[in-house]
Amino acid sequence: MKILQVRVKPNARASLLTPPSRDGEPWLVQVAAPPVDGKANDELVRLLASHFGCNRSAVKVKTGAGARLKLVEIDGDG
């Protein structure tokens, strides 16, 4: 299981996942989806699952569902 701190930027031109450059910094995740009705969170989950090679069901937003700074839990080997 991994716990990631991520900073989400919705309404981006393209969806992009950027790992932190230093320890303690959050991952930067740009998503094309708007922050409406959970669409940005859904795209965040899809991007992280694809990057770590796991199912979308293995990725859960633990805290910050309505905020840009989130803690995300990834179950499995990914």
From TrEMBL:
This is UPF0235 protein JI739_22780. It comes from Ramlibacter aurantiacus. Belongs to the UPF0235 family. InterPro entries: DUF167 (IPR003746), YggU-like_sf (IPR036591). GO terms for cellular component: cytoplasm. PANTHER family: UPF0235 PROTEIN C15ORF40.
